[in-house]
Amino acid sequence: MSKIGFIGLGIMGKPMSKNLLKAGYELVVYDIIREAVEEVVAAGAEPAVSCREVAERCDKFITMLPNSPHVREAVLGPDGLLEGARPGSILIDMSSIDPLVSREIAGKLAEKGVRMLDAPVSGGEPKAIDGTLSIMVGGKQEDFDECYNILKAMGSSVVRVGDIGAGNVTKLANQIIVALNIAAMSEALVLATKAGVDPELVYQAIRGGLAGSTVLDAKAPLVLAGQFKPGFRINLHIKDLANALAAGHEVGVPLPLTSVVMEILQALKVDGLGDADHGAIIRFYEKLAQVEARKH
Ligand code: NAD
């Protein structure tokens, strides 16, 4: 089994890379933060000093980076993956980025005979730790088939949704639904609280009905406990909604609800909560209504 490269060892990349080690893959890892590399090396990986070195030592390499500019830099920049990659190797970009940038990077890689899948994930840190992420993949069927087992070591659902870029289009759809759900939950729990009803009991009463959802079950307990440690940072959700709005405008789809939640996120960022979990959307409503929706 050839070694797999893993670049980007943050909230998501760390547990995902550790799950690959647990599944028996040999890993070569890199991050610009040295402590992150040291932590995954302590779990059994080998360190590299650049993206280029990762590509020189592996035929398949995964990136899990914040946004489009970071992936462009890691792949096409100086000492990047493209410089070290051999023809026939495969980049699996698992970051959530602009689908148009996925296509642009895939085009540059193809000139050197390097293949690419865009394979963003949903499920957040808990599912990254459990290895039960939902992975939505764009790229050629044969490349998908070749990488399926690797992806399965990190996720319980691995679905090919189309050609390159389709994974990130699917992720944008996912992020719209998640953001709007958290905003709806926040609006409702703040209303209940100020109307004198215990928001924890409201949550318990409605979670089994039509308003129940994976988002509600993941976020309501944390919000009601006043826990806003990320998780998924507000700044990253701003990035995803910015990509969604850009893609929507590009193809001619107005996204009115997404734009409202985007402005709520922008207000929270101005309020110093950019690095808080996106469950902190409730803080926006709490400030408007001058009440805190917390478990008693
Ligand atoms: P993070 O900021 O915690 O981690 C990103 C890592 O990339 C950091 O360790 C950073 O040092 C590293 N990095 C940045 N530029 C680099 C470069 N040029 N070379 C090497 N390393 C570099 O972010 P995260 O929460 O792990 O998210 C990663 C991606 O996954 C994002 O696109 C995010 O939208 C997506 N995502 C996150 C979650 C979540 O719940 N956190 C859920 C689903 C998807």
From TrEMBL:
It comes from Moorella mulderi DSM 14980. GO terms for biological process: carboxylic acid catabolic process; glyoxylate metabolic process. Its EC number is 1.1.1.60. Residues 3-162 form the 6-phosphogluconate dehydrogenase NADP-binding domain. Keywords: NAD, Oxidoreductase. InterPro entries: 3-OH-isobutyrate_DH-rel_CS (IPR002204), 6-PGluconate_DH-like_C_sf (IPR008927), 6PGD_dom2 (IPR013328), 6PGDH_NADP-bd (IPR006115), HIBADH-like_NADP-bd (IPR029154), HIBADH-related (IPR015815), NAD(P)-bd_dom_sf (IPR036291), Tartro_sem_red (IPR006398). It holds the Pfam family NAD_binding_11. Belongs to the HIBADH-related family. Residues 165-285 form the 3-hydroxyisobutyrate dehydrogenase-like NAD-binding domain. The active site is at K171. NCBIfam families: PRK11559.1, tartro_sem_red. One of its GO terms (molecular function) is NAD binding. It is an enzyme of class 1 (oxidoreductase). The gene is garR. This is 2-hydroxy-3-oxopropionate reductase.
